[in-house]
Amino acid sequence: MTSPTDLLDLAIEIAREAGELARRRRTEGVAIAATKSALADIVTEADREVEDFIRARLVAERPADGFLGEESGAERGTSEITWVVDPIDGTVNYAYGIPAYAVSIAAVTGEPDPQQWTAQAAAVFNPAVGELFQAARDAGAWLGGQRLAVNAEPSVAGALLATGFGYDPATHAGDLARVARVMPLARDLRRIGAASLDLAYVAAGRLDGYFERGLQPWDHAAGALLVTEAGGVVGGAPGGRPGREMTIACGPALFDALTAAATGV
Ligand code: IPD
Ligand code: CA
Questions:
Q1: Domain boundary among 98, 122, 147
Q2: What is the CATH number of the domain that holds 231?
Q3: Deepest in the core among 47, 54, 102, 151, taking most CB within 10 A?
Q4: pTM (2 decimals)?
């Protein structure tokens, strides 16, 4: 199998190129192409163009690999690798001009299902600020030359947490009830608007923890590897792996309490 670091080199190269394309398109103006699962769930022309670009680059470099992307769906490969891609995570930020969006690219092995896969390499690039977070399995998580480490313990003031809310208004009451349960652990709560950056920030110690219901595989594939390679823990429902039902990421000391509060179990 190709080594995780070789997969990472390709993920970084393509994430940088794709991010530059997204950033350039942003300066030219953003057109909403369609709404998806709910009125608030938008896709811009840039989301589609950037995913097409990433997919074409991967096909050219590694034609045997599988692909799972937000905008263009899944295709099984004949190698053991699947690339899991969100071309623009934080599309609403992108559309509004908030500089918190990212290209998220992960290479995974095993079934292309977050309940089963093993992440090998991850690149999360925010072109608006030029930050590229990267990780390869067993080789650590990095931001440029700086090795990342999650915060060992929240401060005495409580944990700086982040979350997100589903696009479907029917999910909002449940999300707000979850926030009410979690707030006793928190010094404050952020809603950054891009799950890949939430996870990257946990890896970097900029957040103590993150929780969200309703994530899709491409939202957390790369970010979850950043967190685990930075010494953190990523889970889902109690005892489970991250997925649509729940995604929780933080340092080991906070994990049980945050899981209990976020899931209500
Ligand atoms: C969304 C963002 C957001 C999260 C949503 C995701 P998108 O991804 O990551 O922060 O709350 O659950 O769907 O639609 O911007 O790629
Ligand atoms: Ca997206």
A1: 147
A2: 3.40.190.80
A3: 102
A4: 0.97
